[in-house]
Amino acid sequence: MSIDEYGGGQGPGPEVLVVTTNDVPGYQVQQVIGEVFGLTVRSRHLGSQLGAGLKSLVGGELKGLTKTLVETRNQAMQRLIEQARARGANAVLMFRFDVAEAADVGTEVCAYGTAAVIARV
Predict the structure, then answer these.
(1) Which InterPro entries did the record assign (predicted)?
(2) Domains, the chain, ordered by start
(3) pTM score
């Protein structure tokens, strides 16, 4: 699959392939641009916190918190892709997420990786 065929749906502009590997089979890294990241911090919704407190008594998935974390991760990844695209990359290699508590008021999510230009060999 070519980068043009990737169709990752990350928004306007050229597609940016995001992978967790060091390389992409069938492609050669032509240029390493450098580290890119997308960062967001989200506070917890009061209703989700109350629901989580009650759910912790009986067990089970914390659906409100799960939804918030998914949205937060997606936003961090979108920011990563925008930064890579702005720097001229068509790929992000070694993609990772880092999640941490932010001063007990929310969750910090950082998406990071190495922006690169790759081409089919």
Answers:
(1) UPF0145_dom_sf (IPR035439), UPF0145_YbjQ-like (IPR002765)
(2) 3-120 (3.30.110.70)
(3) 0.75
